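As promised in the previous annual report, we have extended the structural survey to additional targets. Below is the entry for Protein kinase domain-containing protein.
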Amino acid sequence: MTYPLSDDYCTRFGVSKPDHPYVTGNTFIARSHILLQFRDKVTPSDFLPTDLNLVAKIYDPLNFSHIQDDMDPFLCVDRDYSRETATYTALSKSNLPGTVIPRYFGSYTLQWPVTMSETVTTRSVRLILIEYVPGASLQQLNPADFSQQYRKTLMKAVIDAKTLLYTHGVQHRDLHPRNILVLNDTVAKASDAWGIRIVDFGHSVLGRAPFLELEGPEHLPGVPISLLLRWHKAWRRFEFFSDWIDWDWQSWLECVYGHMRASLTEHMVSTWLPAILTEPREVFIEE
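The corresponding structure token record, generated without further manual editing, is:
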């Protein structure tokens, strides 16, 4: 997604707005960063599909929402690009691309000419290519247009999809309605068992610990962790989808995933649902 360069940013740094280059009809040349062993006389473009619509997600700091993130926009886009590329690369050999996330077709660099004091140089802009997903985000849809049963089915698909990401060592960390795409009916009914895609991995983390260097065997890498723990009401994750949920969350969760209770261990419970979340806490107020 691209955003207009904010006037606040321009005023703060005393610069004028650059022209917006990402318009219909413009042609770009990008250098590939796909890490593959190519045969002689075979270019990266030979591996791109010709029967599939692709989306170029461009990480240009000059077209980033500086109002939303009050920090260095260059650091912001570098963070998003690095994390998203690492996530798609890590998941590329799994069965998730094309099922719960879009298929990924590599990362690239655009070179834009820049004139500074009559000297022409270039600046690098990163981009990735992913599969175009025909549909709309939960944020764009109106929950009132769907039955409760459909909304329950949809929430189960969201939970199951995020669980698969977690099992494959990815924490999304930005699972909001805007990042859940619901496929068009024609596509979902014809060939898709999920009906959704999770997108936008700019805040994702590889591994189960908050930081990769803290990852240890106690986090049980590769072991499925019960949804009864990770989606327990105490974590309040369901509140991001409150507009879509008009039923008691915890009782529904227990009903749908109660069969997983037998797989719980004491270690899992203490790690993924610590007592501090579920036990009442005493509050002392000084008079």
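Strands lie at 30-32, 54-59, 104-116, 119-131, 135-137, 170-171, 180-183, 196-198, 205-206. The CA atoms of residues 20 and 253 lie 47 Å apart. These points will be discussed at the next consortium meeting with the crystallography subgroup.
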